[in-house]
Amino acid sequence: MFDFATAASRCPDIPEQSRAALTTLWRDKQLQYTWLRTLQGRYVDFWQVTGDALDFALDSLGIRKPGLHETLMELYRTLAAFPEVFDVLHSLRRSGFATAILSNGSPAMLEAAVAGAGLSGLFDAVLSADAVGAFKTHPKVYQYALDRLGVPASAVSFQSSNGWDAYAASDFGMRVVWCNRYGQQRERLPGAPDREIRTLAELPALLSRAGD
Helix-strand-coil percent breakdown of the chain, rounded to 5? Predict the structure, then answer.
């Protein structure tokens, strides 16, 4: 739902020609650290992981300016939502679907992101992996969502733009729609998404047909 690239794109201190490289490396390292820390049993919350990944990316690209780390982290707190998200959530709720977020983000990060994107009040639950002290794709993160929502895996339509997350949720038993915004290749992992879309704007009609 949230566009990670908007942190760097809204920072005037990052040269325009460096924004894409910074965004990609920052995100890649952020994900690597979640997986490695979960494997090592060395959990810290997603805010620290995000900051550590940013420092790695800035150092790797040779981008150095006083206060830049703090500026980018503050921009990360209020990432912009993709353009269709607001209308899609309203449509799903009008159709009677319960809506929830399941994220690696810490509770404070999620609260800021939802409020900053103007999405307050559009979720029945906002769930953080912080509650179980591990990051996706550990099965206990997905189980935490089921326990909190009080539903079986088969009753969940799980959406993610991350292929690895979509495949893991499918392997866990959820019904999965992969929002493949960037035309990524299919993963060679256990599980397989039930449907693939390019934007969330396709989701309400897809779920409506599935419920017929």
Answer: 55, 10, 35
**What type of residue is 25?**
L
- Cα 73–chain centre separation: 16
Length of the chain in residues, anyone?
A: 212
Angle between helices 139-149 and 163-172 (to 10 degrees): 60
Residues 83 and 199 sit within 8 Å (Cβ to Cβ): no
CA atoms of 19 and 9, how far apart (whole Å): 6
Q: Give bridge partners of residue 100 from the DSSP assignment.
A: 125
Return d(Cα 122, Cα 9) in angstroms, integer: 26
pTM over 0.90: yes
Greatest alpha-carbon pair distance for the chain in Å reads 57
Q: Is the pLDDT of residue 210 over 80?
A: no
Round to whole Å and give the CA distance between 97 and 54: 36
Per-residue confidence (pLDDT) for residue 212, from 0 to 100: 53
Q: pLDDT grade, residue 201 (50/70/90)?
A: very high
The answer for residues whose C-beta is within 8 angstroms of residue 43's C-beta and 6 or more apart is: 37, 133, 134, 135
Query: Which residues, in sequence order, are CB contacts of 61 under 8 Å at separation 6+?
Result: 18, 21, 22, 25
